[in-house]
């Protein structure tokens, strides 16, 4: 008999955790597993990449009330005589106004959001909250399953979350999974009581699939050096540093085109910075791309400007495509890059990013050294799926 699995995720917008989930779902053995997917919102470019075997459950009817303005939501709830839901939305509104930390706000809002969500009727062999906060909380409070697993996809402390809130939920998980050796270490320090159930599972990456997708044709205006960066346009990714570093490169006389592939809440801010420095023809925000790999394939350098990460999937993808890499020194990068061996690690400031890029542009032998070493690395992680099988057995 097939094992019944449930995965829970916010949406399938373009992001590292979302890409990782798609890769995992593409790797599962469906002859032995029956898979349901619960999304709070049926949105995102990755929806079309779901394997046909995955059964996507209906989105929750009342979740949109927590995305719309409080006035619109409450008025509609009262018209529909959903008074408890109106009270919950008012409570959530208070949290949104008073809690400025986005991660803590999501944690605190759950007590109100939960009142708008029904329990799932079906019983599962395993339920997997594939992202910190809401997906894990849903698995604990709204799902019946023999085994409950929660994934943490980033450096827990850097998010600024309240561990006291998560303590309650983590206590009810059978397995707490994170995606890098450093994230395991940090979680064990933060939650020593749960050390025995904190496990490592690297994001599943298929080099063959990435190489195959990278050959799609895109036309990029030539420059002496093409740089690529991939990520959501959010503070965590540090793209304001990329703008400043790009300006320094131009001022120093380098002929470059820098493509940032992704979308997010900081687009307007970044566009303004780019305009102020007259970089509109040099630093290009491409928006969300269903297939970012041709950009990485055609670039000369890949640059990661993040402030923090869990395990950086885009770094792995750039390594698969054998690109010289400059990355900032967020905590977990040392699990992926060996400084001076397969990339450069620089400080988290524009001047250091500029110096790292300048050095690689100027030093062809160093670029070739990195490429040579990358060619020897084994980067496929498809076998990581067996860890999941073990936890749900």
Ordered list of secondary-structure elements with their pairings:
Elements: E1 3-9, H1 16-27, E2 33-39, E3 55-56, H2 70-79, H3 83-98, H4 102-113, E4 123-129, H5 134-142, E5 144-152, H6 156-159, H7 163-170, E6 175-178, H8 181-190, E7 198-200, H9 207-214, E8 225-230, H10 239-251, E9 256-261, H11 267-276, E10 283-287, H12 293-298, E11 301-304, H13 313-320, E12 325-328, E13 344-346, H14 350-362, H15 364-374, H16 385-392
Parallel strand pairs: 1-2, 1-4, 2-3, 4-5, 5-6, 6-7, 8-9, 8-11, 9-10, 11-12, 12-13
Helix pairs in contact: 2-3, 3-4, 10-14
Protein architecture, described:
This protein has two domains: about 5-205 and about 385-390, 3-Layer(aba) Sandwich (Rossmann fold); about 205-375, Rossmann fold (3-Layer(aba) Sandwich). Helices cover about 40% and strands about 15% of the residues. It is built from 16 helices and 13 strands. The protein has helices at about 15-25, 70-80, 85-100, 100-115, 135-140, 155-160, 165-170, 180-190, 205-215, 240-250, 265-275, 295-300, 315-320, 350-360, 365-375, 385-390; strands at about 5-10, 35-40, 55, 125-130, 145-150, 175-180, 200, 225-230, 255-260, 285, 300-305, 325-330, 345.
Task: Quickly list its features.
single chain; alpha/beta; Rossmann fold; 7-stranded parallel beta sheet; 6-stranded parallel beta sheet; 16 helices; globular
Count of separate structural domains:
2
Tell me the β content: 15-25%
Write the CATH architecture name of the largest domain. Answer: 3-Layer(aba) Sandwich
The CATH superfamily title of the largest domain: Glycogen Phosphorylase B
Shape: globular
Q: What name is given to the CATH topology of the largest domain?
A: Rossmann fold
The helix content is 40-55%
